[in-house]
Design a protein that fits this description.
With 172 residues, the chain is of the alpha/beta class. 37% of the residues lie in helices and 13% in strands. The protein is built from five helices and four strands; from the N terminus they run E-H-E-H-H-E-H-E-H. Strands 2-1-3-4 form a four-stranded parallel β-sheet. Helix 1 (23-37) links the parallel strand 1 (11-17) and strand 2 (44-50). Helix 1 (23-37) packs across helix 5 and helix 2 packs across helix 5. The two termini are 18 Å apart.
C-alpha cells in the first residue's frame, strides 16, 4: 500500500466546491471510480465538502447523479461543510475555483496543518480545465461538460500521485 509519507495511512484527497452537491461530490465519485478501476482504492481516503452550508445533509444534485449514472460511476454522498479539522485529516484539499480556494484559505488553521490547498484543475494537462465551473444554474449539458473536465483532472491527479508517491500499479 502506498502510504502518506508522514505516517502509515492512505493518501487523503478532499474535494471542495461551494455547496457540495454538484462539483465536489462528482469529483469524489469520479476520482474514487478511477482509482478503483486501477486497483488502487486502498491507497486513498477520498471525501468532499462545501465552503457554504446551504446543502448540509443533502444528497448530490439530481443532474450530478444522472451524469454519474450515465457514465457508470457510483455516487453516494451527503453534503457537508469544510471545517478546520479537514486540514489535518487530508493531504490534499482541492478546490474547484478561485472563490472556493479563497474561502478554504479562510477556514484553514493558522497553525501548520497536513493539507496542501490547491485548485483541482491544476492537475489537468488542459489549461482550460484550471477552473471547474459551477453548472448549478444551467442544464444537463453543463454537468456533462463538468464530468469530462473532472475526469481529465482526476486522471492527471492520479498520475502525478503515482509518480510522486511511488505508488505501485498493476499492469493491465
Amino acid at each position: 500500500m502506498a502510504l502518506s509519507e508522514e505516517c502509515n495511512r492512505p493518501i487523503g484527497i478532499f474535494f471542495v466546491c461551494l455547496g457540495n452537491i454538484c462539483r465536489s461530490p462528482m469529483a469524489e465519485a469520479v476520482f474514487s471510480h478511477i482509482v478503483a478501476k486501477r486497483g488502487l482504492a486502498s491507497h486513498f481516503h477520498i471525501d468532499s465538502a462545501g465552503t457554504a452550508g446551504y446543502h448540509v445533509g443533502e444528497q448530490p444534485d439530481r443532474r450530478t447523479v444522472a451524469t454519474c449514472k450515465k457514465n457508470h460511476v457510483a455516487i453516494s454522498h451527503r453534503g457537508q461543510l469544510l471545517v478546520q479539522k479537514h486540514f489535518d485529516q487530508f493531504d490534499y484539499i482541492l478546490c474547484m475555483d478561485r472563490e472556493n480556494l479563497s474561502n478554504s484559505t479562510r477556514v484553514k488553521p493558522r497553525s501548520p496543518c497536513r493539507a496542501k490547498l490547491e485548485l483541482f484543475g491544476s492537475y489537468s494537462e488542459d489549461a482550460g480545465d484550471l477552473i471547474v465551473e459551477d453548472p448549478y444554474y444551467g442544464g444537463l449539458e453543463g454537468f456533462e461538460e463538468m464530468y469530462e473536465r473532472i475526469v481529465r483532472c482526476s486522471e492527471g491527479l492520479l498520475e502525478r500521485l503515482i509518480r510522486e508517491k511511488g505508488i505501485q500499479t498493476k499492469t493491465l
